[in-house]
Write a structure and sequence with these properties.
The structure holds 3 protein chains of 3 kinds. Chain A has 14 helices and 11 strands. By secondary structure, chain A is α/β, with parallel strands linked by helices. Classes of the chains: A alpha/beta, B mainly alpha, C mainly alpha.
Chain lengths: 356, 271, 291
Amino acid sequence: MGTNKGVAMISRRKALRAGAGLAALATVGAPSILHAQTKTLKITTWGGKWGEVMKATVLPAFEKEFKCTVSADQAFPFLPKLQVSPKNDPIYDVLHTNSNEQWNAVVEGLVVNKITAKEVPNIADVYPYAVSEKIVGVTIFTSAIGLGYRTDKGLAKPTSWKDLADPKLAGARGGYLIPVNSLGQAHLMMLGKVYGKGLTDLDAAYKALEALKPIKLVDFTGQMEKMLLSAEVSMGVIHDSGVYRYEGANMQPVDFASPSEGVLALEQVLNVTPGSKVKELAFAYIDYMLRPDVQKLLAEAVWYSPANKKVKLDAKYDAKLLTTPEKVATLIQPDWKWYNARREDIDARVTKILKG
Amino acid sequence: MSAAPNRRPFDAGRAAYLALNALLLAFLLLPIAIVLVFALNPTPYISFPPVGVSLRWFEKFFGSAEFMNALWLSLWVATVVLVLSIVIGAACALALARGNLPGRAVLTAFFMSPLMVPAILTGLALFQAYLLSGIGRPVWGLIAAHTLVAVPYVIRTTLAVLHNFDRRIEEAAAVLGASPTRVFFEVTLPLIRPGVFAGGVFAFIVSFDQFPVSLFLVVPKGETLPVVLFNYMKFDLDGAIAAASMVSILLALSVVLVLERLIGLKAYVKL
Amino acid sequence: MTSAARPSPIAWLIAPAGLLFVLFFVLPFAVMTAMSFYSGNPVTNPNAFLTTRHYERFIFDTAGIFHEALWSTLRIGLITTVVSLLIGYPLAHWMARMQSRLGHALVLMAVIAPMLTGIVVRTFAWMTILQDKGVINTTLMQWGLIEKPLPLMYNEFGTIVALVHIYVPFMVLTLTGVIGRIDERLEQAARSLGAGRLRAFVEVTLPLSLPGILAGSLLVFALSISAYVTPSLMGGTDVLTLPMLIAQQVGTSFNPNFAGALGVILLLVSLAIVVAYNRILARLAGGQGMA
């Protein structure tokens, strides 16, 4: 009898303790339950001015409207990380890269192949280039790759890609390390078109590349910008955003020229990972990034051309960026799928040509 | 103290010696002077010669929550890594130098190997391992990775001092009656301090300035300063990064000074 | 027989380092080495198959750039090491022998500061100094000493200058500890026996600092053969080292399997060199009867 009472007392104490424990768990767990209801969208983003605007304005507004948290990874490169993460729990839901990388990603099944207006309604309002067959995912912005040049070196404004090969520019022209930079890769293909039969004429491109020596090569566009600004080169391959964003006070005499053969597209492309657990939210994000007000904000911050036809930019941006069907028609989109398949050979060949 | 008898005709040789060292110091400091110029130059892109003096980049740096968080994270990670690497590295060096372990040459090479692997591979390998084992990307994972890369430095510098060690001092202490433990703590450890100090400086700097390994192992909102700077730089090329650099230098130098006071060169007492 | 053969209890101190390395170095790299024998990532890609093609690609080098990359890597590493030693030794000697505490601290800070500038900023600083319109060239041209700008950047020269600048502090800090431990009275004794300053240095101090020289050289060599950010930014296409290739394969070719294979190759070559180095170091230190 005594033992029974003892047992009863013990079990009551245990029950009390257990109850207290549960209550504690509940209070601790409650926020995490609430948190579990707030979904997290994992995206990638660039740094610099773009990142500032995203973090300050665009993302908080999105989080508020869609009642979620956005976790934005800025530590480039993104694709190697996505490659390693498990397919059913990818490290990103939305991948923001240039077009060539999206093609690398889709070949490995890391992103979906096509996105239509069904998932992202605003697609109905974009220019054709944004969802062309050269794109996997959706383009939200583009820049034009052309020639940047200094206006104080007695140079006429370039009208053709061939102007880069002008003998007067020997040692004063700039290009990119082709294995690591997509502008360099696009330029190589352009050389094939300008000097040969088309974007896929590698033989002509290699010959033209050889003829461009001596040429100063850099790793990323920031360095090209610096070379132009410090007059280390008088002309170089660069995208319009890289030249226009310095407009304002203390501006150096650098300008951008769109060659007559056309400008190459440097697209900012968003895509969704097939294993993402928040696909609807991911599509909603892409849709959000295509809204005219969001597009206008970002386009004017970093001088990108918006993909949405309905965006109305301020006059000074409108004048220089690609905001009409006619201007957009000058964009040439390379076949990245074709290029990526040949990359190893091209990289080796180009390295041999440009060495020493 | 026994005065060197020929102190007067010192000048030519000593002057040359000092001049050489001054020149070498100038080589080391020239780029830093340039960075300072960038940091104070008000133009929104890097140019030379400078246009003027302005503090706007420092304002931008200190005003940015992102930079400040990154700076703070880098600082305390580096401090933790410093402590861990000193302890682990010095212990390992002692074991290698005194422990009579078989295959010492190979073991030493093994512990140096993280230095010979391009850090981007280390980062990728660890990232892969962390994901596969379900660890994810917690801060301690970052700290462990930094420690891995920092420990070889401590081992190397401590070994260098140990190799040049006059063991007779230890033997003298033992002869005078000190127990082996006491000899270790009161004679050996203080005498290897310069090596540990040098290694510790490396460890702190290597962690603070670590880029490729951190690249893979940081999470959004938990990025170290070098990562934030590099990604800022790929996109925007203004003086903010130069300002960040100057601040990093000043901060890290203060840490080094503190280290110097604590464990450094007091051990240069000639016995 | 004697204690020389059996490990002493001190050997256990190696345990923490051993644990750290096994967990965070050996295991992940074992995984990476395994990956280097696959065509893709076997965990996420069911179509990945075993292959030696990554190694074959390097060994047969039909592209003609891989062997060259390995030699470049070793050559740049060697030159960087030698130059860093030549620059670092005087500074280390000066610092180690300095009496003034304040002076010592100041020189220490000056030596360390380059390590703290940060990879990319430091490169831009060098660009400003070395490029065609940079400080050096504009100054030389202004003084009429040269007609055309010297090609100081986007080549091996610029890369080595930048690498030396990063690694001299490592050399100095390694050496200064060792030199500081050398009893100055040994040098003074030689001098009082009639040797000149230089001779006393060459025959007394220099040999005694040999372990430090070898340790510092090893450190700088190991670091410079794994560097890729600096050569990429400073070298243009003139320079292509194995680490640069590895970084390219990871970051822009998205071929981590090949990168892993290259990493294994680099590590094996480096380890061979380091083991040889350490044998020399052990023999020299043992030969002096000091350790």
